[in-house]
Amino acid sequence: MKQTNSSKLTFFNKVGYSSAAVGDAAFYTMVGSFLLFYLTTVAGIHPALAGTITAIGAIWSTVFSPVVGYISDHSKTKYGRRLPFMFIGCIPAGVFTLLLFTCVPGSQAFKAVFYILMIILFWSSYTTFFNPFFALGAEITDDYNERTSVRSYAYVFNICGMTFGMIAPPAVVDLLETFGCSTKLAWFFMAACLSILSIASIVFTVFYMIKHGFYEDNREEPGPVPDSAETEAPKESRGSLFARIKPILTDYIQVLKLKPLVWLLLTGFCYLCVNTIVGSDRIYFMTYNLGMTGTEITAVLLTIIVCGVIYVPIINKISSKLDKRSAYLLMAFLGTILMVSAKFLTIETKLGMIAFLAVYTISNTAYWQLVPAMVYDVCEVDEYYNNTRREGVISSMQSIVEALSTAVSMQVLGIILDFAGFDGDLAVQSPTALLWIENSMILIGAVFLGISFLTMYRYPITRKKFKEIMDALEQRRGSKSI
Q1: What does the alpha-carbon distance between residue 68 and residue 143 come to, in Å, rounded to a whole number?
Q2: How far apart are the C-alpha atoms of 234 and 290, rounded to whole Å?
Q3: Radius of gyration (Cα) for the chain, nearest Å?
Q4: How many H-runs (helices) and E-runs (strands) does the chain carry?
Q5: Of 343, 158, 382, residue with least CA distance to 252
């Protein structure tokens, strides 16, 4: 790299890296917010089966993510360890996003097979891009505050991606239908435009990082620890399947012994269940409980964008005054109390929905802005305890948690909708279905958010602790005793 890892990054460095967050958020929110809705109301798949389809794809991602994380950590190419994977993954991610929002004829069984295949291929390609992209953020700086700043920039670009992946689709589909497009064709066109934009943003980051030299990790690598992933397999087992996967398993077992990472992963799992359930269910709530059109849904969802932009500098300021852990605890506690209050105040109007989304965005912004930066900090904890650096492995744990939370929450939401009697062919749903659409969005979301507060409370790395770790690592790197 042209800069050392502890140097301050320029504005353009941060923008260059963060631009790919547009594609990250666009892909992630399009699938997370609308796929279940699309499968149940456009593709004609039963809610429980649709939940199973999305869950299978997410479970596959939990299997595939460790492989990508490990391989990117141990890869050496002309353009570094991360950028080739980002480039290779982004184009098929766009293709399979388009196919996920393509309505195919046939029986429930045929549709299930088709969409299961597409969701597996989507998560495979998305993970191939996302894991290295996320890991690269830990490598471009090891400064505690700079990492928060980098994630703040990334979240701003995430907001741009959310605009296309989460906000725009209902209005675009509505608009295309007014011009005579069928609902199926309108969703296909929306997915095509989003895929092109997402690929372009990721490719821009890849070429920017190459041009400015952010693909060469010129740090002196710490030596491997005993029994690490680099330990040579016994001769008799070389070439066997076990010998090939043992180094991967060894790395992941080691990092999962890091208590700070475990508490972060539990926090991430709980919050991302909130993110997925609220993100998917609110489309049902606004469509059926409030009777809103696609254009009205888009207008109301803009609340998330506006509030996110407002909250980013506030949370950044709170984090700099306190630390990342304390800032998240404050935002999660506030968000939980306000979300529970929403159930008793009831959401019966568009204005009420706007107020709910403003409340929800407090914790949403805090999570995406702060927790990924905390994951970066664990890389130094790993080096301190294990004398090796595994940004790819540690960063891939974020993908695994995202996938697991998606699998669990999508399946739960699908079962709830099926149990409550939701029917995608009906314009008006039963009172029971409407009640559980509301409960899923508010109460279930609030419960998971409250649990994420409790798990973050156990996370031990404060600003002071991180400084102690960095000081110890500097002594070790300088061959001084600790």
Answers
A1: 26
A2: 64
A3: 22
A4: 17, 0
A5: 382
398 in Cβ contact with 374 (< 8 Å): no
Instruction: Determine how many CB atoms are found less than 10 A away from the CB of residue 131.
Output: 33
Please provide the DSSP assignment of 264-311 as one string: HHHHHHHHHHHHHHHHHHHHHIIIIIS---HHHHHHHHHHHHHHHHHH
Strand ranges in 324-426 using DSSP code E only, listed in sequence order = none
166 within 8 A of 304, measured Cβ to Cβ: yes
Task: Please give the helix or strand (H or E) that residue 293 lies within, else none.
Answer: none
The two structure tokens encoding residue 351: 């204005």
Q: How many other CB atoms are found less than 10 A from the CB of residue 143? A: 16
Tokens for 297, please give them.
């849904």
Burial of 39 (0-12, 13-18, 19+ CB in 10 A): buried
Alpha carbon distance 58, 122 (integer Å): 10
Q: Residue 170 corresponds to which tokens in the numbers above?
A: 């209902």
In tens digits, the chain (482 residues) has pLDDT values of: 444 454 578 899 999 999 999 999 999 999 988 998 999 999 999 988 998 998 898 889 888 888 888 888 888 888 888 999 999 999 999 999 999 999 999 999 999 999 999 999 999 999 999 999 988 988 888 888 888 889 889 989 999 999 999 899 999 999 999 999 999 999 999 999 999 999 999 999 999 999 988 765 544 444 444 444 444 444 444 456 556 678 888 888 899 999 999 999 999 999 999 999 998 899 999 999 999 998 999 999 999 999 999 999 999 999 999 999 999 999 999 999 999 998 888 788 899 999 999 999 999 999 999 999 999 899 999 999 988 888 888 888 888 888 888 888 888 888 999 899 998 888 889 999 999 999 999 999 999 999 999 999 999 999 999 999 999 988 887 655 44
What's the start-to-end Cα distance of the chain, in Å? 28
Query: Which amino acid appears at position 315 of this protein?
Result: I
The CATH classification number of 14-215+251-477 equals 1.20.1250.20
Q: Inter-axis angle of helices 294-321 and 350-386, to 10 degrees? A: 40
Half-sphere exposure of 425 (CA within 13 A, CB side): 3
**And the tokens for 118?**
């597409």
Model confidence, pTM: 0.78
Please give the single-letter amino acid code of residue 81: R
User: CB of 30 within 8 A of CB of 301?
Assistant: no
